[in-house]
Sequence to fold (934 residues):
Amino acid sequence: MSALVLLSVLGVVLLYLGLFSGRGILAPVGILGLLAALVLFAADWHLESTLFGGLVIFDTYARSFSLVLVVVTVLLFLFGMDYYAKVRENVAEHYALMVFSLVGGVLICSFTNLVMLFLGIEILSIPLYILAGGKRDSFRSGEAAFKYFLQGAFASGFLLMGLALIYGATASFDLAAIEAWSAVTANGGNMLFLLGLFLTLAGLAFKVAAVPFHFWSPDVYEGAPTLITAFMSTVVKTAAFAAFYRFIANIQLPGAVENMLVVMTLFTLFLGNIVALRQTQFKRLMAYSSIAHTGFLLLAFLGTDGRTPDVLFYYLGTYALATVGLFIVLTLAKRAALGDENIRIFRGLFRRDPWIAIAAMLMLLSLAGIPLTAGFVAKYRVFVLGIANGFIWTTLFAVLMALVGIYYYILVIREAFTPQDQESKELAVAPINWLVISLCGAGVVALGVWPGLLRI
Amino acid sequence: MIAALLLLIPCISALALVILRPAQARPIALVSTLASLAVVVFAWISYTGGMVLHYDLDWMNAWGLRFVVGYDGVGLLMLILTAVVFPFIIGAGYGQQHDRPAIFNGLLLFTQTFLFGVFLAQNALLFYIFYELTLIPVFFVLLYWGGENRRNITVRFFIYTLLGGLSLLFGLVYLLIQSGGNGDFTALQALNIPGGTQVWLFWILFLAFAIKLPIFPFHSWQPETYYMAPLQGTMVLGAVMLKMGLFGVYKIVFPIVPLGVEHWQSTVILLALIGAVYAGIIAFRQSDFKRLVAFSSLSHVGVLCAGLFAWNTYGISGSLYQAFAHAILVVGMLYLVGAMQERVGSTDMNAMGGLKSSMPRLAALFLLVLVNAVALPLTQSFVGEWLMFAGLWQVDGWLTLLAVSTIVLGAVYMLYAYQRVMLGPDRANQQLPDATTRDHLYLVPLIAVTLILGVHPGPILELVDAPVLQLLSSLSVN
Fold:
């Protein structure tokens, strides 16, 4: 598939550009390359092209998720123009590593072979270990990178072990073969297969930060540079979920594994939301709320029917849109507050810049799931799936947890619309940032009113 | 056309106010609400009965959401109520000093848009969306223009109300799946849900409205919020928003889970009346005028809810009729609170007293508003209360006695308040200005509505009777 090649080449080109010319053209070149990839992804929409001898297949599912990944990366690169404006060194490496990570993301959206799943996850993750430590002189950033690497390595180990066990049981890495095998020996007591599934799911759960594999996320979110945090909570999360669903979609899950998913959903919903209540640092709040959203997405996994991929796609796309915008607003407010990340820095945002405050409000309302924003439609669809597939009590619990979620998002909105006590620095909004924030803010409303715009 | 106008007039004016921020924000808002009123009056005149559907458009059909708007008699009554009350709410701003009046009035108009949406919606999800949306502008009104301790009280109000909202959403999703993904009220009402399910589903659905009204024991957000809110915010909350609770019970709870209603009827009536008596007693002990109005509203709402759950023609019609009377009453009382605050400088009744000597006209107006509050014959409230008691009587004599006792309590605390504010030795001991032209312009129409509809309740009751009868007969068939 030409888009995949293009993206890989783009990464290399960006690296070389960093050697030879100024930083000014990095982001434009990157964006142009990504847009070209976008065109290539969209060009032959209905063709199902296989690659690498059938290890990868670009079907509609893969193409849709790849499109979202690329679009969100474009938004982040636009943000990067301003974000990296004052950074002296290693800017090219950052862009290039993000593109490489994106390649991994595209691969795990489209794998049909477990070997490719593992390779994709590694391609996705290894650049992230470096990026998380992107601020070289910052202690926290180094800590984030180290923690992420250590735990990520463990998760990869789990995943690999799980894949090996599945191979041991089914004698194949091919997804279709495994599905066929699981259908024949439905709910069979094959311990090898069961254990393999457990370990594989644990590895994937680590990537989507589901409880109890979430411990890395708050620290890494907080320590990593904001742009990278935004990248992790949008692109990486979307890709990981796409892979997760692709893996379990057609496998006949044994009862024990299904129970494990239910328990994981409940704990993820509970812990993510409740712990987020106590957060005062915005990035940690976003980290825990990200865990909470993982819980809602897992609920969509439980009730798997024909509508699930569409629901996941919509949820992840709109979540990414709101999250990117909010992280940009955070960066702006953080600069005005001289590096503070407490949610207090949003105080008086409405006075300082009404439009940014309103856009931020829309994005927060969307994350909270208030009607007429995309977040509401997303949550609503998840609830419908949950109840339609018989998980009434789990859904009721999720509804309660959604209320808790609304509470901590509202607290941030409250800060933005409370007049501040003393004057603080003006908010300097670069036009490019203004544009991205406006796009995200308008996007969540538009997608909330016309949900049909974003579907597989 | 009517539905489109009702949704667009306030929405466009609100957008214009918020974006352009003209200096003359309040007159523009007033004109907008009067235009909406004209549209509603036209709708009333041309209404011939039955269900009037205006739009039936696809939106998200696969997920049960369709844009279906229209109204029956009860819906029209609620539209009339909203349209009549809002010019007064905007007009009350003339006595108030506001930071950023354009945005404030814009938010009020957004609230009106969404309220119209709630009363027009004929699709459960559309109803839910508008129902939740009404909270957003009110949230900002309270947060930005509220009184002391507004940050915490506003968030508590918001979360408390959303708790009910999300419970309602859960119930609606459950119903939607039973109906095969059709979210129109007609489809949901045709469902035959097993009795056992209805017993728990009743509370899932009713919780939202119980909190919105609020009835005991879901009321703890109400007094503080009413007290802290800016005057016009309290008017919106007390006069119109809580009517969404009554409307929701009529529209969703009664037709969809009738067996659940039958099961819990006496419990709800008892809770509502306990709340009514309890709030009445507390109101008596208040020394602050605005708090007193808040608790009196809480007491009235208890009776409204009990009347509704009497579950017969008298009770339901009376309750819906009284909803209108209550809206007019709340606006009138709160305007008086504002007028007093303007003159005395606080809403503390201990700082007042003997004001009648310096402001006889205002005292007279006060008394005229007050007779409605104590449901004196020939006022609007009398009609409503009488119907509700007649309805309750068919359920249980003792409960009726409890309900009637709230009237006595109401008379006591209202007259006691009047005494403390207007009568007695002149403690303020200064010449305060009497009722101005503005006060007359404001209060006289309100009093006129009260008296006219008290003597001649026919037009409103006609609107309500047919749909209520139809509802009850359709239930007895099932």
User: Anything to note?
Assistant: Residues 132 and 224 of chain A are 5 Å apart (CA to CA). Chain A touches chain B through 28 residues (CB under 8 Å). Strands of chain A lie at 49-51, 56-58.
